[in-house]
Amino acid sequence: MEYRNDTICAISTPPGISGVALIRVSGNKSIEIVSEILKSKKPFKTAKSHTIQFGLIIDGKQVIDEVYVSIFKTPRSYTGEDVVEITCHGNTFIANQILELLLQKARLAEPGEFTQRAFFNNKIDLTQAEAVGDLINAKTKKSHQAAIEQLEGSLHHKIEELLNQLTEYRTLIELEIDFLEQDVPDIDIKQLGKDLQNLLRELKYLSSTGDEGLILKEGLKVSLVGAPNVGKSSIFNAFLKTERAIVTPIPGTTRDYLEEAIALRGYLVRFFDTAGLRETSDHLEMLGIQRSYEIIKNSHKVLFIIDGKENNQEFEKLKQLVEPDKIIKVLNKADLFSIDKLKVFENKGFVTCSTVEKTGLKKLKDFLIKNIRISDEELHSGILNNTRQIAAVKRSISSLDKAIKSIKNDLGFEFTAFDLKEASSALEEVIGKITTDDILNQIFENFCIGK
Ligand SMILES: Nc1nc2c(ncn2[C@@H]2O[C@H](COP(=O)(O)OP(=O)(O)OP(=O)(O)O)[C@@H](O)[C@H]2O)c(=O)[nH]1
Ligand SMILES: [Mg+2]
After folding, report:
1. Which residues lie with the beta carbon below 6 Å from any ligand 1 atom?
2. Which domains does the chain carry?
């Protein structure tokens, strides 16, 4: 992907009526282009960087709006180029007219193009560019926290730190190769092996943060499954605190699945109410049940709900689909059982609840997020939170693993040097020192225009 340095512009605020709207212009002609449509006390062209001017946007003699215009001169701007931001009244009709005037001399920005330019001009690395997108989309405290830490450079610094270590070891090995015949002190192979092992451990730990990083960003997927009529939809509604799903005493009420999300102690939790599992000849119900199984496979947690009758066959089937530690066994309709009977279920590992008496539901929610362990300190020191980053770190791990084996098996330092280089390259991909058009397109196409 080429860096185009023509001047671009876009409305950065959403359409509609609001207090103000913001139009952003970036590129080496931005100050000149804006000065041609702006009437201000002092000539805009001579305005200092990081100042705000009041003025009128004019189309010939016609005044379009009273505006404030901020100016950020290269390189001290979001994109690294000359940037001008016009704040007008929050009316799409007005903002569009100003944009039209700018478009006579500038090009409409593509989605994410301002951020892309910031990346090309080394204002931010690729993890920070991704964080800009995450920040805009964050809906809960934790996803917000993760995004802002990443934007502040947590993952960038972590990767740089690991890369520095790798470079140090590569230099050692390459020196050894270059001076093999000469009298250079031999490297301490044992120590190098240990150092590489430590580095491998650090990388593996970083990689392990990816699963939870994805959960922080995309939400914890929780499916409610079980036989018909056990109260799945009732529990779903109780979690959402609305009558979202239809509840009836007729088994087989829910056919297609329903998905709704809530924020739970700062985490996004996505609940899936599913069709009750049973043998059926009803075609429609069968389709619903097939979907239930698909959802189960993609869940982080599965609430396996019964209302008294232990459904061992379904439970065994479930264990084939998801790892057993993802399954939480739930006995609903606790109001229909004696305390002694409930104890029996609890001793068998069931969480007991009742949607009628509203008991046990809080405990159940706590159970869901109990095992998410990423702490604020970890967010601060850098975690992975998308599949691109995770895949690259995994590649780095596999190359480092090969490097360690090449030393162990005495294959020759050329092999070690090669594998360490591969390990470095994979990490460089994470921060975008090495990148491809495909990766960049994938990242920026999800942005909105004006960011
Ligand atoms: N006594 C009692 N009844 C409940 C409780 N929760 C749900 N019910 C009743 O159980 C019946 C079935 O509830 P649903 O929530 O529709 O059950 P479901 O598992 O979604 O059923 P399907 O969609 O048919 O698979 C309804 O009559 C509910 O009122 C509870 O905690 N106690
Ligand atoms: Mg239902």
Report:
1. 228-234, 247-249, 251-254, 276, 332-333, 335-336, 354-356
2. 8-124 (3.30.1360.120), 131-215+379-432 (1.20.120.430), 219-354 (3.40.50.300)
